[in-house]
Each structure stands twice: as structure tokens, then as C-alpha cells.
């Protein structure tokens, strides 16, 4: 009796094997991406934290006789027009760029989650006012609105971070609100209301722990965008003030010296590698924490 047939049997084996190979290949690529992301982020974080120990010199130590030196054994990333070591400045600049990116995502996510949770649980006029506010902010490209706020506040790392937070929280608020609307009438929330728990206690103990994973997923995916935006503001002169090193500002400084490609090239490579690594990590966290993502 043959096991070949139009709907099953050996004819389906090649298709099933091909599907299994595709699944294995996808998992392999994801694992490779996760490993790459972890290694790159860990490397930049370690270099930034250990900058005084790793850097060849201070980020503003000037040696005019060594100005515009190309990469060599003495200066791995070369020097700029003032003779400052680019490798040292890139490492110290990582402290500024990474700190702004992480700080903005952390503060923006906490503020947005808090506002969105209150909006979704309260409903009515409070919900309407908060959601209309988020729509106004999200109607503008984030980098454009952040630039406008940073111009009003003036240049500086703190002002750039404040400008980013002001345009960063609405996405988290809307996500938190949508999650709260999905769970505000589930059994354990209704039970907490029935036994007389106060609204703030219900939010803290019953609702926020159940929406936290979605906020973490969005925050991890968002880290790359935060780093790019922070670098972009500094590139435009709205972030770090010289001589403080920052990757975006260093790229801008190298733009005026195209022959000395290393001045802008290595900070640009640092931005590229960090953003790519955060994207890999964000995808991994999303796959792990978000069961709805396939």
C-alpha cells in the first residue's frame, strides 16, 4: 500500500524539510544578531565606563605638533586639527551619547507609562485631554520638534536631553493607555475594586506590573532612535558644547575637513555600530517578552 497521495505522504516531506531549514536559519540569524548586539553594546559600555583607564590621553589634551595625523600605532584613530587623540575622544564621547540615549528612554518611558496608565484608567475628560496632547506632539517628526525645543532652551547636554524627553513620552503613554484599556475590566482588577482598594493602589499593584513588559519592549527597540536623535542634535550644535566630546558633534567637526576622513569616520562608525546593536537587542527582547510577535 503506497503512502504517496495528493494531500500527504512523501510528497509533503520536501516542503516540511524546507520549512524546518528556514526556521533553523531564521533562529540562527536571530541568535547571531543577539550575540552581536550584546557584544557591541557591552564593548562600548565597558570602554565608556573605563575611559580614564583606556584612553591614551584626556579628551581635550592638545598637541599641535601632532595635528591631523592619520591612524597609526601611536594614534589608533588619528588626531584632529588641534592634535587631540580621536580614540580618546570617541571613548569619552560614548559616555555622553549613550548616557543621553539611555536617560531619555528611561525617563520618557516612566513618564509616558505613568501618564498613559492614568489616562486609560481614568477615562472621560482626563483621557481625552491627555490623548489630544499626545496627538499634537506626535503630529511633528520627533527630531524636528526636539530641535525647536532645544533651540528655545539653548545648547547643552541637559537641554538636549530635556527636549528629547518632551517629545519621547507620548508613544509610551499611548501604548500604556491601550494596554490599560485591555485589562482594566479583567477579573483581578474587578476583584481589587470590589474589595475597596484605592485607585492608585490598583494601578501600582494590579495594572502596571501587567503592562510593564510592553513598555520594556518599546524602550529597548527605541534605544537606537534615541542615540541617533541625541547625536543629531549635537551634530546641529544643539547638544554637547565644545570641548565636551560627543559623537554627533565630532562628526560635524570632521565634516569641515573631508581630507581627514578619520575625524568624522570613527565617531560615525561608533554611532552606526551602537544603533545597529541596539536594534538587534530590541528585536531579541521583543521576541522574548511579546507573545503576540511572531
Which key phrases capture this entry?
single chain; 10 helices; MetI-like fold; 294 residues; mainly alpha
How would you describe this structure to a colleague?
The chain is an all-alpha fold. It has a single domain, classed as MetI-like fold. It is built from ten helices and no strands. It has helices spanning 13-49, 51-54, 86-122, 124-138, 142-153, 157-183, 187-194, 199-235, 247-255, 261-289.
What is the radius of gyration? Answer: 25 Å
Count of discrete alpha- or pi-helical segments spanning 4 or more residues:
10
Mean pLDDT: 87
Overall helicity: over 70%
User: Strand portion, in percent?
Assistant: under 5%
Question: What's the end-to-end separation, in Å?
Answer: 40 Å
The CATH topology is MetI-like fold
Low-confidence segments: none
CATH architecture descriptor text: Orthogonal Bundle
Class by alpha and beta content: mainly alpha
In total, the number of strands is 0
Name the overall outline.
globular
CATH superfamily: MetI-like
User: Major β-sheet, in short?
Assistant: none
Oligomer: single chain
- Please identify the top-level CATH class: Mainly Alpha
User: Secondary-structure element order, as H and E?
Assistant: HHHHHHHHHH
Q: How many domains, in number, for the residues?
A: 1
Question: What can be said about this structure in brief?
Answer:
The protein is mainly α. It is 73% helix and 0% strand.
List the helices and strands and how they pair.
Blueprint: H1 13-49, H2 51-54, H3 86-122, H4 124-138, H5 142-153, H6 157-183, H7 187-194, H8 199-235, H9 247-255, H10 261-289
Amino acid at each position: 500500500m503506497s503512502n504517496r497521495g495528493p494531500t500527504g505522504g512523501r510528497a509533503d516531506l520536501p516542503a516540511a524539510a524546507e520549512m524546518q531549514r528556514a526556521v533553523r536559519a531564521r533562529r540562527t540569524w536571530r541568535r547571531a544578531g543577539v550575540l552581536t548586539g550584546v557584544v557591541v553594546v557591552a564593548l562600548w559600555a565597558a570602554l565608556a565606563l573605563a575611559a580614564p583607564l583606556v584612553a591614551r590621553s584626556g579628551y581635550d589634551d592638545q598637541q599641535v605638533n601632532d595635528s591631523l595625523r592619520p591612524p597609526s600605532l601611536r594614534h589608533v584613530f588619528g588626531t584632529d586639527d588641534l592634535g587631540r587623540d580621536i580614540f580618546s575622544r570617541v571613548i569619552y564621547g560614548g559616555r555622553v551619547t549613550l548616557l543621553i540615549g539611555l536617560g531619555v528612554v528611561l525617563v520618557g518611558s516612566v513618564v509616558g507609562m505613568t501618564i498613559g496608565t492614568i489616562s486609560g484608567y481614568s477615562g472621560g475628560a482626563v483621557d481625552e485631554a491627555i490623548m489630544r496632547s499626545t496627538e499634537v506632539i506626535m503630529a511633528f517628526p520627533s527630531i524636528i520638534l526636539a530641535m525647536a525645543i532645544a533651540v528655545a532652551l539653548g545648547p547643552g547636554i541637559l537641554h538636549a536631553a530635556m527636549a528629547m524627553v518632551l517629545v519621547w513620552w507620548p508613544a509610551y503613554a499611548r501604548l500604556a493607555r491601550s494596554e490599560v484599556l485591555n485589562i482594566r475590566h479583567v477579573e483581578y482588577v474587578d476583584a481589587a475594586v470590589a474589595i475597596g482598594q484605592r485607585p492608585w493602589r490598583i494601578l501600582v499593584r494590579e495594572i502596571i506590573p501587567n503592562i510593564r513588559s510592553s513598555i520594556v519592549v518599546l524602550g529597548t527597540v527605541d534605544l537606537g532612535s534615541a542615540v541617533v536623535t541625541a547625536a543629531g542634535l549635537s551634530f546641529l550644535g544643539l547638544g554637547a558644547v565644545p570641548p565636551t566630546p560627543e559623537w554627533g558633534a565630532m562628526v560635524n567637526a570632521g565634516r569641515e575637513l573631508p581630507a581627514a576622513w578619520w575625524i568624522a569616520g570613527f565617531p560615525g562608525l561608533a554611532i552606526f555600530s551602537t544603533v545597529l546593536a541596539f536594534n538587534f537587542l530590541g528585536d531579541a527582547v521583543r521576541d522574548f517578552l511579546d507573545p503576540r510577535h511572531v
